[in-house]
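Hi support team,

I submitted a single chain yesterday and got back a structure, but I'm not sure I'm reading the token output correctly. Could someone confirm the output below corresponds to the sequence I sent? I've pasted both exactly as they appear in my results page.

Thanks,
R.
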Amino acid sequence: MSVTGAAAATNQKMEKPLQLVYNKDEKMQLNPEALKVLQSIKDPMVVVAVVGAARTGKSYLMNCLAGDKKGFSVVSTMQAHTKGIWMWCRSLPQRPNEVLLLLDTEGLGDPEKGDNQNDNSIYLLTILLSSILIYNGQRKIDQQSLQDLHFVTELSKRIQMKSQPDVHDSWDFVRFFPEFVWVIRDLTLDMNVDGKDVTPNEYLEHILKLKDCEISEQDKKYNELRRCIRDHFPSRCCFALPIPTSRKKLKKLQELEDKDLDEDFVTERQNLINYIHTHKKVKRVVGGQLVTGRRFVELTKAYMDMMADGGVPCVESCVAIFAELENQAAVDEALKFYEDEMNKFSEADDLTMSQLLDLYNEKSMEAFDIFQKRIMNSNSDKFSKQLKEKMKTFYITLRDKIKEKSEKRCEKHLREETSSIKANMASGHYWRFGGYQELKDDLDKAIKEYEKKTKNEMEGDAVLVRFLEERNRWQDQIHYMDGKLMQQRMHVSELEKELSRLKQEMVKKEQQRMVAEEHRNQEIMRKIRKKCEECTKCSVEELKEAMEHMRSEKVKYEDEGRMEDAERAHQRYEYLKKKYEEANESGFIKFFKKFLGFSSRS
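Hi R., thanks for writing in. Yes, this is the structure output for that exact sequence:
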């Protein structure tokens, strides 16, 4: 598989799979090395997980999806080989801005474990983390293979949608459950139902039909399992792969070239690979937020923390926890960029206030762009305000630091240019006839030289204003001795004009700062509004997809004559439809009103 760019970098980071989850002291643990790799992935991920009985070729299947024969460990012994959950990040050549994350799980029902609790925990975590769930079964779909999925019936007890669950809690599962792909391996029988050839998808739907009556307890369990699969995985499909080669060659299946394999097997295997690689099932959390590598890490940690010691993971709470972490990380990342960029100018000797304001507006907008790319919509207004306040505080501190340095430089220049004037004042040189005009000329000359040296200084005008106000006192003292009152008054008028001009210039700059600040806040609001609209759109699309799945399921039940189940599916459809309409009509309005408080106080 040839890859380029970011995709190639992903493959280079993961030349081989890493164990993501392992068992220690009968508890699931996370591998820090795997988390480090995931943290570096900033692109959205298609998370494909495989589950199934032990020793059924799951790892081989995942290697096929990875496009590499030497990835997940494959053995031909009767002993289960994969333990815990292994991961492998691969590129998607057809989708360069996304990453394929493959999760290979240990086999279900391994007699060496002697405990179903581990299976349940692994399977539960896999469902919560994946966007496409592959069940790897053998030969046909029968009652035994369905029984391997028996704990699907326990999902409503083992997963909690809301922090305050209600009777409809499990109805929302369809919004975040992965797409279900059943892969039948080593198929030897013809796919035939009632004498008619059917496709793998039609075969799967036939198997999932309910019994007409539920007289015995066995019948009830039969239907309950199928109902749960249909309710929780309304988006599902099936692929059927024949035996790849002769039994003697199966032990070396991983090493065989396509020319050595059954032609139909190669064709069906490629159909499965193409489906997974091109199917747009990117991992999202409830609300439509895309899951990147670092988000995947936080989500996994949150779920595992809740599952520790047999706890029930709450999807809403886990998403809230990892959203809080992600949003804070977005603030920290944006703030670090802003501070690093602004600090580059902290030692500049020729930075004017206008230039500093331009930098502040430019770098703060760039920081908000970084923030917007990472932020999750949940409670983002709080973090937007936090970032704004921290940047403003940093700006004020930096501005005061630069102003202090500039003030010292300006005062030094002013002392240099007026030192002889002060000496003449102290010696009484100007206390004579004509002294006023000489003082005026000396001062004008000193001010011109000072303005030359401080034309780019931030505090040049402020220091000069203070000096000009002090000059008033000097001239007031001299004019009594000089006797040129009219000339003095004319010059005082000029002085007042200069002072007025400088003060007006300072007021103008402050007004410009406020206008720029308001413009920046409006631009931030525009970007936040756009981000919110995108998130609302994703949430609406998520609900619409779930709603359409339940409508399709209702039709299937009606076709089967299962009117009670059809009514139940219809109720779920109406429940999702109501949420869809609420999100479509008022999702953004509610968020925008919340954010108005931030905007009006900016």
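A quick pointer for reading it: The CA atoms of residues 421 and 520 lie 46 Å apart. Let us know if anything else looks off.

Best,
Support desk
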